């Protein structure tokens, strides 16, 4: 009888211990903070002439900037740059569209930053550039060239001590004539590598060195545009 009683007591203690162990492992649910997602820009479209909007006068028009609402986002920051004056304007917004009065006959670039009240992280959209139309404009300045490879601020692997710079540029008139390439290790004094009829150039590089480059785009009407300063480091 005592043996039976002891066995039953042992089974009960094991069961009780198991229950206590399981209950101690139950974790309370935790709130998951979702970071905002980058917005998809809609209008003005990239590398186009903007003919829409409301004309204010000979020099200005109102254009509505539009992007798709992004997930986990409470507000947006629209960043607009006049590419001729390099003036930057910032607009803090709740909605995913905003009307801005801008200069006619002028090139701009813009992007949107998505923000959340729950997260300290932000998400930046792609950067679009466009030309705001003006009366009497019959030819246009080329859009600034964009780096394809090496990507800007990237770490890159050279092949036999060489890297091929590749870029892309567009012009509403489709009359790009050639490019001038500026390249070097001193971003204040880049070497002019000459005129290129194609959008690529092979350059010599050294491991562990950071290089800087920019592209000047020329069209048939002698209009020019200069890209931002790109950089990459050879690993």
UniProtKB/TrEMBL annotation:
<dbReference type="InterPro" id="IPR036116">
    <property type="entry name" value="FN3_sf"/>
</dbReference>
<dbReference type="InterPro" id="IPR013783">
    <property type="entry name" value="Ig-like_fold"/>
</dbReference>
<protein>
    <recommendedName>
        <fullName>Fibronectin type-III domain-containing protein</fullName>
    </recommendedName>
</protein>
<keyword id="KW-0732">Signal</keyword>
<feature type="signal peptide">
    <location>
        <begin position="1"/>
        <end position="23"/>
    </location>
</feature>
